[in-house]
C-alpha cells in the first residue's frame, strides 16, 4: 500500500496514525455494517434510521455539556438525569395542570436549568467541593424535588404547540404532500429533506473550496486536496443518503434540527472561541492556566452552569418525545452522556476531547442499542455490551497514547 | 599512608558514577568513599547533584540508568528498587518527609513493611510495641497511636529516624534533615546522630548549613556541577566555613555570559515596599517578611537564596497574588501605586512571570507550542471571543523564531520538546504578552549551556529596550554574570542588597547560609 516515493516505514506509521486517530469512526462503521448484516438490512429501514438520531438526540445534547465538564479534568455531572426529571416535570405541570403559556414556560424551565447548574457550579468552582460529590448530592436533591413537583404522579403533555416545537416534522408546502385520514391524497411524497440536504451539501462544498482558496492566498499550511475533498465527498454522500432515508419516512424532525444546532454550537465553542480554549487549558494544567491570567474557578463554574442549562433543555425534549414525565424519567441518562464522551475519545483526565468525537461515541452507543433491540436482545445484554464497549474504548485510548509517548 | 588505608573500614564506595537526564549531565564521574561509623557530609549548591547521587545509591534511580559502580561492605551492589537497598540496611530520609498525616506514628513506621501474623493479618499489638521500642531509641516521647498531623516537624523527623531503625539501618542518609526545624530541634537531631555514631551507625548528611557540618561531621565531600571537588577531613584539613564555601563556589566565570552595555535608567519600573506574605495553609507562618526592593528601567536584578528562602513565593505574590494569604505591603508600577488582585491584572499591567517549574507550573505539556504561546493573551488573536486561528499561527510562529525554539512545527506538543526548547517555548509564551517587567524564576535550570546562552541574550535584549528583568536563580555565577544588583534572601527576609560588579560568590554565600 506504500505510496510511490515514500518509504515503507513512513507509510506504515502514517497508516497506524490514521487508524489510531480515527479508531472510533472505524469502529462505528464496523458496528454499523455488522448490525446491518445481522439484522438482514432491517437496521437500515427508513424509520429506524430516522429514529436513530431522534432516540439519541437527548444523549447528544447532554454529551455536549458533559464534554465541557470532562475537559476541565475528567469531572462529570451525575445530576443530569435528575435535572431532566425536575425540569421536564415542571414544564408538564405548568402547562398541563396550570395551563401556563408555552413560551413563558420554556423560558422559565431553561432558567431553572441554568439556575441549578449555576448552583452546582458555584460550589464546584468557587468553593472547590469535588464535582463528584456536589453532583451526587444534586442527583438526590433534584430527583426528590422533581417528584415533589410531579406530586409522584405521571403528568402527560398534550399541548400541541409545545410538542410541535420539539417533535413535529418539517413540512414545506409544495414540496411535501402528506396523506392523512381526513384528507387522503393520491400521490403522497416528502421532498423537503432532499432539497434541504442538497442545500447543505452545496454549502459544505462551497465553504471547503473557499477555505482552501483563502489558505492558498495567505500561504498557510494546507491539507492535500485529496484529503480535503475526499472528506467532503464522504460527508456529502452520508448527508444525501440520510436525507433520502428521511424522505422515505415523515421527513426532517424539528428535534433533529435542535440536536444538530446544539452540536454545531458546541463544536464552534470548543474549537473556535477563547472560552472554549480555556476548558482545554484548565484540564491540561490548571496551575499553569491560572498563572496565565485565566480565572480557572470561573471556567469550572461555566462548565457546570452550562450543563444545567442543557439538562433543562433535555428535560423538555424528553417530555415532548415521550409525551409524559414521571418520577423515574431520566434515570441514568447521565451515564449515557458520560459514556458517549469517553467512547468518543475524551480523556478521563481532562484536557482532550472533541464534539465530533462525542457525536461518534453517542452514535456508536445508539447503533448498538438499536441493533440489539431489533435482534431481540434483552436490556440486560445491552448493558453488558455497552459496558464492554466503554471499557474497550478507553483501554484502547490509554494504551495507544502510551505507545505514542504521550503522558 | 598505605597502612592507614588498610585500616580504614570502608562501608561504602561509589566509583565514577555518571547519571544523565535528557539534555543534562547531572553527575559526571562522581566518587564518594564513606568510612564506617562516621558522619559524612555532602555539600554543594542547589542542583549540584547531591540528591541525585543519593537517589542513585538507594535505587530510586535503578541500576542501568547510571554508569559506575557501587560497593557496599566491599560487595558490588546493583539496586533496582528502594526495597533492594533497604534490604541491605541502607535507609534514605528525604527532605520532604514521606509520612502520611492522617495515619498514626506506628502505622507510618511500618507502612509497606507491616508486621503480620501467620494468616497475613496485621498484628497491631506487636506493631505498636515495636514502634514504641524504636521511638524510645530516638527519644521520642509520644504515644505510637498519635497521628502524624498532631506532632511538629521536629518530632516527625524523629519518626522518620525511628522508622529507619525499625528497618535495622546501618547506613542512614539524611537529605536536608534540619531545613524545616528550628535551632533547638536541629541541635537535638544532630546530637542524636552523634550518639548513634558512637553505637556504630554510619550517616551521610546532605545540608546547606555549614555550622552544622562543622559541629557534627567527620568528613565533608564537596560536589559542584555534578563532579566531586574534594573531601575535607576533620582534624586533617582545614575544616572551616570559609574553606568549605571556597570549595563550593570556586569555578571560573569565563565567557558564559553575553556582554551587555550597562544601561540602567533612573526611572523605577517596579517598587515593592514592606511586602509581607503568609503561608496559604498555615496563615500564622510568615513566608516573606517585610521585603522592600525596586528595579529600574533597563536593569536586571537578581534574587539569591536557598530553596525555601521565600523567593518564588515573593515573585508569585507580586504576580497577582497567585501565592499566599494576608499579603500586606505596597506595590508601585512606574511610580503609581497598584493593586494587582489576580494574574490577569498583573499581565495587563505589564508583568510576566516565567515560572520556576516549567512542567508543572508553566506549560500545558499535552498541547502544542501554538496553544501554549497564545494562552495568556488569547484576546490578542481573537475578535469577540472567536479565535482567528490563522493569526494565531502567525504570531506563534513569530515567537518561535524569536526565541529560537528548535521544533519541526509549532503544532508540536510541548511535552515532546527537550528541556531547553520547552524553556524557550515558555519564554515565548510570556514574551507574547509584551511585558515591561519580566520575572524569571530559575530560568536556566536543567537546560544545556547553549540554550542558557540564548536565554541570557534574550534578557539583555529586554533591558536594551528599556524593560526590566527580575531573575531568581540558585546559580550564583549566573546572577553575578547577568545582574546589575543582587538581593540575597534568607528565611523570608532580604539580608543584603549587593552591587553585582563589586560582590563575590563568597560574600553572597555568606549571607545565604547565615543563621539569622
Topology (SSEs and partners):
The complex is a heterodimer of chains A (407) and B (516).
Chain A: H1 8-21, H2 23-38, H3 46-55, H4 57-71, H5 80-97, H6 102-126, H7 131-150, E1 155-156, H8 160-167, E2 176-177, E3 189-190, H9 192-218, H10 225-247, H11 254-272, H12 274-284, H13 286-291, H14 296-322, E4 324-325, H15 333-343, H16 355-375, H17 379-403
Antiparallel strand pairs in A: 1-4, 2-3
Chain B: H1 2-7, E1 10-21, E2 24-35, E3 39-43, H2 50-57, E4 66-72, E5 75-77, H3 82-87, E6 90-93, H4 105-109, H5 124-137, H6 153-166, E7 171-175, H7 183-198, E8 202-206, H8 210-216, E9 219-224, E10 227-233, H9 241-249, E11 268-278, E12 286-296, E13 300-304, H10 311-318, E14 325-333, E15 336-337, H11 343-348, E16 351-354, H12 358-362, H13 369-374, E17 382-383, E18 386-387, H14 389-403, H15 419-431, E19 437-441, H16 449-464, E20 468-472, H17 476-482, E21 485-490, E22 493-499, H18 505-512
Parallel strand pairs in B: 3-8, 3-9, 6-7, 7-8, 13-20, 13-21, 16-19, 19-20
Antiparallel strand pairs in B: 1-2, 1-4, 4-5, 9-10, 11-12, 11-14, 14-15, 17-18, 21-22
Helix pairs in contact in B: 5-6, 9-18, 14-15
